[in-house]
Design brief:
alpha+beta, endopeptidase fold (from Nostoc punctiforme), 6-stranded antiparallel β-sheet, 30% helix
Length: 145
């Protein structure tokens, strides 16, 4: 599979993006954390797909089993990490102005940063133990989807 930097372009949100996002979160809420299948980057990408219909993570999904392998695949594609990929696709907005469905960046227990999805006063974040809600006061960066 060619993992060189793909020509990715985000699609606008679909008219029914809110129920689609809610259904996606409900569907994945109990899935275990698995690099390459259900990690924070793929969780966020799945939310973007639910809202827009575009699977921006297709080149990477199911191609790695360790986060370090996913990182290497992103670097081989020209991105420093999952945050650089998000920044290449979506405009950054002040964290305080992030809206429901936007991507949120949170500190991740000394292992870099995690992507989550803004939802009101909190955001969904995938942790090793499963999906969690984290106060949006902890958002370090945000990207408008």
């Amino acid at each position: 599979m060619d993992l060189s930097a793909p020509a990715l372009a985000p699609s606008p949100r679909l008219p029914d993006w809110r129920p689609r996002l809610a259904a996606y979160v409900a569907r994945v809420a109990r899935l275990p954390f698995r690099p390459g299948q259900h990690d924070c980057a793929l969780f966020a990408a799945g939310a973007v797909e639910a809202m827009t219909g575009a699977d921006l993570a297709a080149p990477w999904r199911n191609t790695y089993r360790r986060l370090s392998e996913g990182q290497a695949a992103l670097q081989a594609s020209g991105f420093e990490d999952h945050l650089a990929l998000a920044a290449s696709l979506f405009p950054e907005v002040p964290a305080a102005l992030a809206q429901a469905g936007d991507l949120a960046v949170f500190p991740s227990d000394g292992r870099g940063a995690a992507l989550g999805i803004v939802q009101g006063a909190a955001a969904y974040v995938l942790r090793p133990e499963g999906l969690a809600l984290v106060s949006r006061l902890h958002i370090e960066r945000a990207f408008s989807v």
